[in-house]
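Morning F.,

Quick status update on the modeling queue. The single chain you submitted on Monday has been processed. Sequence for confirmation:
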Amino acid sequence: MTEALIKDLHRTGCSLFSGELAEQNQALLKRVLLAYARWNKSVGYCQGFNLLAAFVLEVVDWCDRNALKARLMMIFLVEGVLPEGYFANHLRGLSVDMAVFRDLLRLRLSALARHLDDLQMGAGESSSGTSYEPPLTNVFTMQWFLTLFTTCLPKATVLRVWDLILLEGNEVLLRTALAIWDGLADRIMSVNSADEFYSIMGVLTREMVEFGLMDANELVKRFELVK
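Structure tokens below.
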């Protein structure tokens, strides 16, 4: 557990991990993550916790006196907000949400779902292997769920989503993911292969985080369109 945690500390993309306070901030993040792992031994440390905890520390202001507040927020988010079993029992809770999400995608965004199925079918036909390939959206949507969208949306929008989750429950996870895919649909519909899909998603993710491709107000409006 500790080895995986330390590796992820160095992968945490945060502006506070550079400059004079980089080492101090990294040590604080490590303390929060270890404290949660000791609190919930059945879960321990899971990949993605570093990103979630780093965002929490940004919200409460990075300093030693707020470490306890950050730990309590981590406990609340993982055990009180995310559905049960997201990180325990081989991610069973996450697997359930992913299955529900795929059904909702086909129901609410049928044209996009069909296009993604066609891209995946084309990738399968060009491959000589027979191994199972998960749906194209999985790698992105799973990360969004596990990190509560901190990897794909700017800070102000993430906080708006978190407010909605606290007010309306964890079904907002599904609605947010649908709203994001709806907002990206036009660009994705223009690609012609699975390789192009993964390439454009790298570009779109950066545009969402760094350039506000989808702001909070637009995202909330899309909630109603895909509800």
